[in-house]
Design goal:
This protein is of the alpha+beta class and about 400 residues long. The protein is about 30% helix and about 30% strand. It is built from 11 helices and 14 strands. The N terminus and C terminus are likely disordered. Bound molecules: zinc ion (3 copies).
Length: about 400
Amino acid sequence: MPGPSFRDTRAQAQSPSANSQQGPQAQTRQQSSSNQRGGGSSYADWHRRQSQTSGGLPGGRNTRPAWSLRMEYWSPEARPTRIRVIPPMFEYWGRWVERQGKKRFVLSNSHGGLRPAPDLLYYYERQEGNEQLAPYKSDAVTVAVLENFHVLKVPSKKDPKKGYDRLVRCGGADRRGVPTCEHCRANPMPPLVFGNRQHWSLSSNMRAQLDDALAGLHNRCASCLRGAIQVYAYKCPECSEMLADHYNADLRPDEEQEATLKSEDVECQHCNKTVRAVEVIECLEDLGGGSVRPGCDAPQRGQVPADPLYGYDLQIAMREIGNNAKELVIVGFEPAQKYDIAANKLQPYNFLDFFGHMTLAEQSEILGRPNIFGPEGEEELATFMASLRADTREGHERVDDDARDGESIPW
Ligand SMILES: [Zn+2]
Ligand SMILES: [Zn+2]
Ligand SMILES: [Zn+2]
């Protein structure tokens, strides 16, 4: 007897009656998917804009297994890390699932029912009404980690003469220049290389923190790139006397007065002229938990674009904010610098290769539940992924034509 076909479950999941129990949730997903940031910056759109012929084209000759590519991940740590984020963002869905005391990640081929791909995670979530199997959306993006790495030789278990290279970030040295890095102290020291390509998976929470931190760069001091610009006083442009000053109890403005100083002409209490107050700024370094310290002596307002995610080198760290909670902070940034780094380390991953889908066999193994769709489902999934790749490839060729036209226009 044939098992339920994939289309049947989709139809069932999408019918309002079968869906009533989890309706709101499904709706949220629908919304979050259509609310993606940066419309027109989907993976397919991005590929349309690309004209390079190597470095992660869909369907390329990437022979590395998906699990090994997934292992090359980066995540922010307490110690600041200099990275360059390389577009595009790639949306994927999945869920950590615990079985026999082991946590493993299962990709959702259908993005939680949003696209027509056979998906055991989605099937069993609906079948069992099991919240524990509900996938969530993440964004993956390529990062070039602009730090020193040691090249460690990891021998193969089968053949000790063979093996592979593993890059481990150098632990660096303390303030006196004494290495705190165990690999630097090893004899012989494993060779150092600069720069590594990894990928960063951002949960929606992490993504929101990153967006907040990026928005905060607007206020960053352009002189030292560390502190934030704060207005602490208002001065008369005619006589240069202070009209208001937060550091002077006699001149401290209340909220209403400060709003007036920012938006209207006022009469100077010193020279009696009607003037527009000039802001007096200072640079303050945020130490976290609401405490600050004075920054540099030459505060300057920055010229940071609205979305400085790309084209900047960012130093990112996780900062303790109490109750075991941490938050992402950008402790330094500068326009992308030229580094002596292999060109392929600045190429984006082809995320379709390892976050695009998971075979039903692998899903079944991680979930510990049978592949109800059988080999036909596997084929259907392969066909779906092939069409996804073909779409991006077709778009890619179309852009190549556009690009050629563009070149023929004389300037
Ligand atoms: Zn080291
Ligand atoms: Zn004045
Ligand atoms: Zn400063």
